[in-house]
Structures are given as C-alpha cells and as structure tokens.
C-alpha cells in the first residue's frame, strides 16, 4: 500500500519535472518574455514584503535593513500604547464604513433606474455624464472641493449667504470631513461603478421578465423579484472587494484634504504612516504601523470571502 | 405577429402605479444629471469669466464678461508649462513601458501549455491582497537609486495586476487554441506568433490598456510626491497641488498685473483645473466604450 502511494507520488513528481522540462524546451521564448515583468514583481512587490522585517528592527542607516538589530515587537507595542492608535483606528474605520454604507448601494440604485429606461438618448446622456467624473484626478477633485467650499468666496458659502445664512468653514470642521470625503467620492465614482451592474442586468434571462409580466408584476415587483436576484452574485463580489479594501482607504485624497483644523477626523493610518516614515524618517515605526494595516486588511478580506462562500457560494477565489 | 400584438396591449396595461414609478425615476435621474454636471459647467464657465466676476460671486451658470486671462497667464507661467511637458512625457513613456510589460506577462499566462502559469498567476494576484507597505517600497526604490529621477514615475508602478487579468482573459478567449496548434505544427516560434498573430488580433484590448494606463499616469501624483524632489521634474498634478491646494501663487504671476493679483490667483485656479482635465474629458466620450469593455472583460472570471 505504502509503496504504491510512494511510487505514485514519485511518478507525479517525475511527471511534473518532465512537463516542466518539456515546456521550457518548447516554449523558452515565452519564459524569456515573462522574465522582465516577473523581475518587476519580485523587485517592486516581493522585495518590499521582505523589507517589511524592518518593523521588527531598529533601522540603522549605516548597517542597512538586514544589519540593523532586532527589537522584536517593540514598535508594535509603542504604537498600540500610543493614544493616537485608537484615534487612527476609529478615523480609518468610520471613514471606510461610511463610504461603504453610502457608496455601495448608490451605484446599484443608479443601475436599476437606468435599466428601467428604454429611451436610448436620455439613458445614454445620463450614463455618459455620470461616468465622466471618474476621469478627474484626485488633485483636481480636491481642488474643486476647495474652490466650492472655500470659507468666503466658495460657491457653497456664497449660496448660504445668499439665503441669509452664516458662512461655514466646511474644510476646517472635523465634523464635516467624513461627509465631504464620502459624498465627493460618490459623485466621482457612482456612474463608473454602475456600469458593472448594468452589464449584469443586461445578462438576465429575458424569459424571466416575460414570466413576471404574465403574472401581472408591477415595475417595482420586477425589480425586486427579477433584477435584484439576477445581479446578486455581482453585488456579492463587489461587496467582498469593498469590505476587503476597508483598511486601504485612499491615502491620496485624504492627504490632500487634510489641514490642521480637520486633523482630528482626517488623520488615518495611511497618512500617519506617511508622516511618520517619510517626513519624520521614523522608518521602523512607520513600517510596523503599515504592516499592522496590511495584515488586518488581509485577514478582513479572507474572512469576508469565506463568509460569502459559505452563505451564497460566491467568492473571489 | 405576436410581438406587434403584445406591444399596444402592454401600453394599455401600464398601470397608474407603474407610470408614477417611471416619472419618479426620470425625476431622480434628472436631479442626478444636474448634480453631476453643474460643478463641471460652473468651473468651465468660471475659467473663461473675468477675474472680477469670479471673485465677486457673479458666476452662477454661464460665463460672465468672457475673458481668457486665466489661460494666457497659464501659458506664460514656465512652472506650469514645464509640468505640462513633464506630464506628457510621463504619460507617453509610462504607457509604453506599462503596456509592453503587461502583454509580456499576460500572454504567456494565457497559454495552456505554459508550465507554471498558475503558480505565476498566484504570485502576481497575491500582490493585490498584500503588500510590503509604503516605507519598505520606498527603501527599494531608494536602493535602486531611482529617487528624484524620471524613472521613479515609470518603473515602480509599471504593471497593474488588474490590467494583467484583463489582458490575460482577453487572450484566452480570443486566440483560438487551434491557431496556436497550427502555428506550432508550421514551426512558427512563440515570439513570431505573438508579434504577427496575437498582437494584430488584440487591438481592442491594447486600446483598453493604453487608455487606462495613460489616464492613470496623467492623473497620478502620489509617486511624484514621494519620489521626486526637484521642481523641474514635477508632473502637472503636483504643480496643481502647489498652486491650488497649497495656495502658492508666488512666482506664477508676472509683476505687471500685481494689482489684481489676488483676483487673478483665484481665476487661475479654475483655468488650471480646466487645462489639466479637459484633454481627458474631451476624448472620453469617444473612448468610453473601451473603458466599459475593460471593466467587463476583467469581471469575467478567468
């Protein structure tokens, strides 16, 4: 018995080796082709992962990353004991979940509404226009926000004063930061995100609509009983991806929107890492904070994916 | 017959509830349309209004006292023009590098006879889930001596995993296996097959890759922020950040218009936004379908 299994294992191993040799011989050109991009991934993606051991060391410029002394979990402990830890975690999670709760359903609603409209032109115009802000860069997006929300001359305050209301320093209010971030994000990406649901809606079996019509379903009932179940797999996958990215919430926009006034709400883990690491040159500590973030994110993604797999048989891998 | 008979009947059967429902949908979508469109029109109008009209809040929808002073100032400001030139360079060079590397990776991964493809694919997609983080990546770029060089914007983020997935699933679904077998029997090498069969057949996906990388490169600022130090290498986005977000208009204005300096600075912001965004937004309606295609190809599980 045992011998047989061993033999089989050896045979498959030999099979693999033989396959590899044969593939290498016949397709050496493909291997040569893939070598540069593969090196790219090793150097710029995997080498940094190895460099992340910095989190467990005290970085010494002269000795380099690998020569620096080990300090175990010192930097992690420093981070967890620092009161800013809870602020950062709270800000990161609040902003992410706000974005998820508001930003996730809106593209779905937009797609469902667009799908009801059969008249070609109106639908095309709405789609074209709502998709357009996706192409606006982060810097321009924040510039637009700053111009619109400027303390005195901004459009929003001119309008407020027009109606006899007191002007508000929108970007200086910590309490408004999250809403500004989230709703500008929705303004920019809802049309883009709706495309994927529109495609899923277009793929629904038309006989289902006919059956619903025969049963005398209203438009709303058709949406609830045909459209929604039809796009559920797509919705689940997008939800997994969104939840999985909760901790990687966009540094780029937050950093640009930050100012000393709104900092209590706008300082998140990613901006803290940037400030600590690149501005204060506190490399080891910043690496530890970043690593903590990445690990939490990975755990989150795996958990959500497993849950989704168990509940609805949909998963991203 | 059946269809033409059903159509009028459905019209009659359209219930009052359904009609209200449709009216509500049209109303909501019209509001959405206005909310998205209004800021864009407002900025465009402001950019071609007079400096006084902009700062005194006279512009509501259409331009007031049409003038092109903002644009004139932009074209006379060397800092902005350098940034524009740099961005054009980064966009062109970066797109070429990225598209070539993406195809070099995606094509072998699409070939069934390529041993080790699932392992390599895993290696590549894993980087979507986990990364070393900002500082360790910065260290690598520093070690390679790329800090403050143009290459720092072209190489460290050259390949996007998502683009690789899109390209790979396109190759898999459009290049028939029979064609590959036939070419192998005829003794056509893998390189030659790629160059003279695959590439010509893959123009749609190459268009998608080119557009996505080009827009990404044009709009990016983060790599420039962390890797570049000298102003003369700055892409337009960083110049924009300095002028609009950090409010550094010093050195931008020429002294002859110092009197209206503050007004001019305000107007300049609107014009800059237009100058930085218009090239992308103008070509967008013609290429939108490529972006949609790109999203949809990628969403097919491959």
UniProtKB/TrEMBL annotation, chain B:
ABC transmembrane type-1 domain mapped to chain residues: 84-285
The entry's keywords: Cell membrane, Membrane, Transmembrane, Transmembrane helix, Transport
UniProt keyword Transmembrane, yes or no: yes
Origin: domain of life: Bacteria
Membrane topology: Multi-pass membrane protein
Main location per the UniProt record: membrane
Regions that span the bilayer: 21-44, 88-107, 119-139, 191-215, 267-287
InterPro entries in UniProt: MetI-like, MetI-like_sf
A matching Pfam family: BPD_transp_1
GO cellular component: plasma membrane
Annotated GO biological process: transmembrane transport
Cellular compartments annotated: Cell membrane
Family the entry assigns: Belongs to the binding-protein-dependent transport system permease family.
Protein name: Carbohydrate ABC transporter permease
Species of provenance: Cohnella terricola
């Amino acid at each position: 018995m045992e011998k047989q299994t061993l033999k089989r294992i050896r045979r498959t191993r030999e099979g693999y080796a033989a396959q590899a040799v044969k593939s290498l011989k016949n397709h050496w050109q493909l291997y040569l082709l893939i070598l540069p991009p593969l090196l790219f991934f090793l150097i710029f993606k995997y080498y940094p992962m190895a460099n992340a051991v910095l989190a467990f060391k005290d970085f010494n410029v002269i000795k380099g990353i690998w020569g620096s002394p080990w300090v175990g979990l010192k930097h992690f402990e420093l981070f967890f004991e620092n009161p800013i830890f809870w602020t950062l975690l709270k800000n990161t999670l609040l902003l992410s979940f706000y974005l998820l709760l508001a930003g996730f359903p809106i593209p779905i609603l937009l797609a469902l509404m667009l799908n009801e409209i059969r008249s070609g032109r109106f639908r095309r115009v709405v789609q074209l226009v709502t998709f357009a802000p996706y192409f606006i860069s982060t810097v321009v997006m924040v510039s637009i926000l700053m111009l619109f929300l400027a303390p005195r001359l901004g459009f929003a305050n001119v309008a407020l004063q027009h109606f006899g209301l007191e002007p508000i320093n929108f970007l200086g209010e910590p309490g408004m930061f999250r809403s500004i971030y989230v709703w500008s994000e929705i303004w920019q990406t809802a049309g883009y995100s709706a495309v994927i649901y529109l495609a899923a809606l277009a793929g629904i079996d038309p006989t289902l609509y006919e059956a619903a019509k025969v049963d005398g379903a209203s438009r709303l009932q058709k949406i609830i009983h045909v459209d929604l179940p039809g796009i559920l797999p797509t919705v689940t996958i997008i939800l997994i991806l969104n939840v999985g990215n909760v901790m990687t919430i966009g540094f780029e926009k937050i950093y640009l929107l930050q100012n000393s006034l709104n900092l209590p709400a706008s300082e998140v883990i990613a901006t803290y890492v940037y400030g600590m690491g690149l501005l204060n040159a506190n490399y080891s500590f910043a690496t530890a904070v970043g690593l903590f973030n990445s690990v939490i994110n990975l755990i989150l993604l795996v958990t959500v994916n497993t849950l989704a797999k168990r509940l609805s048989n949909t998963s991203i891998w | 017959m059946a269809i033409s008979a059903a159509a009028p009947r459905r019209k009659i059967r359209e219930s009052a509830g359904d009609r209200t429902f449709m009216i509500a949908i049209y109303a909501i979508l019209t509001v959405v349309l206005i909310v998205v469109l209004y800021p864009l029109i407002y900025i465009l109008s402001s950019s071609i209004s007079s400096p006084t009209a902009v700062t005194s809040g006279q512009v509501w929808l259409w331009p007031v006292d049409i003038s092109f002073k903002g644009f004139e100032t932009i074209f006379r400001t060397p800092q902005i023009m350098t940034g524009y030139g740099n961005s054009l360079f980064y966009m062109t060079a970066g797109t070429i590098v990225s598209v070539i590397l993406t195809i070099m990776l995606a094509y072998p991964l699409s070939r069934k006879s390529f041993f080790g493809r699932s392992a390599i694919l895993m290696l590549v997609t894993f980087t979507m889930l986990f990364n070393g983080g900002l500082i360790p990546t910065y260290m690598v770029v520093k070690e390679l001596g790329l800090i403050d060089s143009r290459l720092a914007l072209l190489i460290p983020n050259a390949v996007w995993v998502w683009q690789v997935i899109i390209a790979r699933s396109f190759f898999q679904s459009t290049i028939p296996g029979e064609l590959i077998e036939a070419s192998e029997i005829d003794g056509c090498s893998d390189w030659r097959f790629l160059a003279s069969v695959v590439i010509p057949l893959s123009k749609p996906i190459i268009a998608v890759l080119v557009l996505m990388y080009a827009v990404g490169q044009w709009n990016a600022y983060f790599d420039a922020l962390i890797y570049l130090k000298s102003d003369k290498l700055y892409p337009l986005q960083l110049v924009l950040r300095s002028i609009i977000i950090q409010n550094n208009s010093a050195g931008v204005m020429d002294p002859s218009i110092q009197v209206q300096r503050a007004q001019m600075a305000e107007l300049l912001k609107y014009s800059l936004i237009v100058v930085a965004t218009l090239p992308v937004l103008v070509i967008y309606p013609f290429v939108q379908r490529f972006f949609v295609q790109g999203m949809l190809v990628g969403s097919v599980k491959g």
